[in-house]
Design a protein that fits this description.
Helix content: 40-55%
Number of helices: 5
Number of domains: 1
CATH superfamily: Response regulator
Strand content: 15-25%
CATH class: Alpha Beta
Largest sheet: 5 strands, parallel
Structural class: alpha/beta
CATH topology: Rossmann fold
Number of strands: 5
Radius of gyration: 13 Å
Shape: globular
Distance between the termini: 15 Å
């Protein structure tokens, strides 16, 4: 599985990468602009990401804006809903508005910081990846 991890906070990004390395090949980015570029290239080279973890609060471009752009790229490249990346929003806020906005923008689920491996595995299983 090919995984894209996007978080401006180094500690959170490294923690997520350490967990996700158990499940596939990881690429990590520190901001939304880098993430969009990497996601677009993966589609151009027909090596798409199957999973994206995306921090909600980032400078310059927040996670919801990035999420919208990723979904637009999938439309542009005619990626079917069935083959689209599963996107987990990662947030330090479990506020209802944040969650609703993320879901409306096209995320598949969300994780509240602080997270651990068990939480991530549970979310991934809920997305149909079936890890233990």
């Amino acid at each position: 599985m090919k995984i894209l991890i996007v978080d401006d906070e180094l500690v959170s990004r490294k923690k997520m990468q350490k967990i996700m390395e158990n499940f596939g090949t990881c690429e990590s980015k520190q901001n939304g602009i880098e993430a969009i570029d990497s996601f677009k290239k993966s589609l151009e080279f027909e090596t798409p990401f199957q999973l994206v973890t995306l921090d909600v609060e980032m400078p310059e471009m927040d996670g919801t804006e990035v999420l919208f752009e990723l979904r637009e790229l999938e439309k542009k490249f005619q990626i079917s809903k069935h083959k689209s990346a599963k996107i987990l929003m990662v947030t330090s806020h479990s506020e209802r508005d944040t969650v609703i906005t993320s879901i409306q923008a096209g995320c598949d689920d969300y994780v509240v910081k602080p997270f651990n491996k068990d939480t991530i595995v549970q979310k991934m299983n809920g997305l149909g990846f079936n890890f233990s």
